[in-house]
Amino acid sequence: MNLTPHRWSGYFKLYHYRALLWLDFLPLLSLTYLLPNHSMTTLFGRPTMNLLALATGLLLTASSLVAQGQTDLTGKWEFSVVTANGTGTPIVILKQRGDSLSGTYESARGGLRQLDGTYKSGLVVFTVHSNDVGGTAYLFTGTVQADGSLSGTADFSGLGSATFTGRKQE
């Protein structure tokens, strides 16, 4: 095989060009600039996979928090309160600001009452205040169901208890 300098230099230039292209893609295959102590771990190495797993976990956590934050309790609700003496159907108007709840509770028996409470991590707790000094306060504790309804228990200041469900009116 007779290699003249002209042919050999052409081969060298082609090989050198291919090597430069490979080096251009090398940073994509290495995350050494993201890892501590400039580890030589590549994209397919274990520490990098841990980094990817951490990033995926953070994204899933963020998306679940967003999903939880999407439940807005603000609006008009029709409740069904079942006691030992029968069932009542009060209208509850809730206003949510962050974790805080405020609003009104109106029933045939108790009239219009103010309420306040909290909504955190799917747990709803609110107190319906009496209009009379020394009157009975109602404590409602419940959860938001998968269909968006509320359900739970109510305590009437030791004078009785009840279960309740609530559906938001459109």
Percent strand: 35-45%
State the low-pLDDT regions, or none: 11-35, 51-67
Shape: globular
Radius of gyration based on Cα positions: 33 Å
With helices defined by DSSP (H or I, 4 residues minimum), what is the helix count?
Answer: 2
Order of helices and strands: HHEEEEEEEEE
The count of β-strands is 9
Head-to-tail CA distance between termini? 87 Å
What oligomeric state do the depicted chains represent? single chain
Mean pLDDT: 75
Going by helix content, strand content and strand pairing, the class is alpha+beta
Instruction: For the largest sheet, list the strands in their spatial order.
Output: 1-3-4-5-6-7-8-9
How would you portray this structure in words?
Helix content is 29%, strand content 38%. It is an alpha+beta fold. β7 and β8 (150-155) form a beta hairpin. The chain starts with a helix and ends with a strand. The model is unreliable at 11-35 and 51-67 (pLDDT under 50).
Report a brief summary of the structure.
The chain is of the alpha+beta class and about 170 residues long. It is built from 2 helices and 9 strands, in the order H-H-E-E-E-E-E-E-E-E-E. The chain has an 8-stranded antiparallel beta barrel with strand order 1-3-4-5-6-7-8-9.
Key features?
9 strands; alpha+beta; 38% strand; 2 helices; globular
Give the SSE layout:
Blueprint: H1 5-29, H2 46-69, E1 75-83, E2 86-88, E3 91-97, E4 100-107, E5 111-120, E6 123-128, E7 138-144, E8 150-155, E9 161-168
Antiparallel strand pairs: 1-2, 1-3, 1-9, 3-4, 4-5, 5-6, 6-7, 7-8, 8-9
